[in-house]
Amino acid sequence: MTTALRAQGLGKKYGRRWALTDCTLDVPSGRVVGLVGPNGAGKSTLLNLSVGMLTPTTGGIEVLGAPAGGEQLSKIGFVAQDTPTYARLSVADHLKLGARLNPRWDDSLAEARIQRLGLDPKQRAGKLSGGQRAQLALTLGVAKRPELLILDEPVAALDPLARREFLQDLMEAVTEHELSVILSSHLVSDVERSCDYLVVLVDSRVQVSGDIETLLATHYRLTGPRRDEKSMPPNQYVISASHTDRQSTLLIRTDEPILDPAWTVSQLTLEDVVLAYMGRSSSAPQNNRPVLEVQR
Ligand SMILES: Nc1ncnc2c1ncn2[C@@H]1O[C@H](COP(=O)(O)OP(=O)(O)OP(=O)(O)O)[C@@H](O)[C@H]1O
């Protein structure tokens, strides 16, 4: 299995503050990866490290099987959070520039996308709305025909319809061109709609990463008579717990069947899983168990 992104003990410090800590990840290629986490979790830092725009303070990072940055850049499409474009260049100029700079540039894809979006090729990028500028930057990223497309909150500036269409486009591109995608988002609904792999980053640490189907098949809500989570069997990893006087509700991860008849067991949605991991901070006790990695 080839790897889109591999990080080993990766960390990044700005001054005295860690933006990313001890990040170890192995993201397979050919997947659409949703990177989610609250503001300031370290998502942009991880994405910028993966394109070599930042250098690690600790550890290492590989994309598509080689160290980030350098020659790998020709295989990567990257759209940064602020969707950078050249304010004085027109939409058409951006496409020309894309064609000159990228050997695998797909002109018909770029033209068709600009036309479908209703962008005026003569309009200067500086005069586009935030959402239109994001669409232009995304078009450049996709038309480069990269092996790996890295998008930092790509749909944040788009209206709901444009967001849905963009995510649909993206999924089609993945199927057609064996593309790998890593996108960060605050919206679990976007991840649910378009991604098949999840990475949750909280407080500069990876809390969970894995295939979404597998995550959904191994996480449960248990409701039953009040019970201390510390008394749970070792193969049932407690992610969150809440208690009333008489009742406990636990969100757990396990690969084994739950046999205890005292529990009422229900499935979790992706949002339940994400929120459960987001609710944990690195300062909260985590039973000294390792960060979870769930892969097929
Ligand atoms: N250039 C910088 N100098 C100093 N601190 C920075 C810099 N860039 C980011 N940080 C800090 O690093 C931490 C992680 O920031 P990062 O932008 O990676 O988070 P994020 O998860 O992408 O957040 P958001 O969802 O708000 O975009 C934050 O505490 C942020 O303040």
Automatic annotation (TrEMBL):
Residue ranges occupied by any ABC transporter domain in the UniProt entry: 5-228
Tell me which Pfam families the record gives: ABC_tran
Which Gene3D superfamilies would you find in this protein's record?
P-loop containing nucleotide triphosphate hydrolases (3.40.50.300)
Q: Does the keyword Nucleus apply?
A: no
UniProt KW keywords: ATP-binding, Nucleotide-binding, Transport
What InterPro entries is this protein classified in?
AAA+_ATPase (IPR003593), ABC_transporter-like_ATP-bd (IPR003439), ABC_Transporter_VariousFunc (IPR051782), P-loop_NTPase (IPR027417)
Q: Which GO terms describe its molecular function?
A: ATP binding
From what superkingdom does this record's organism come?
Bacteria
What's the name of the protein?
ABC transporter ATP-binding protein
Native organism: Kribbella sancticallisti
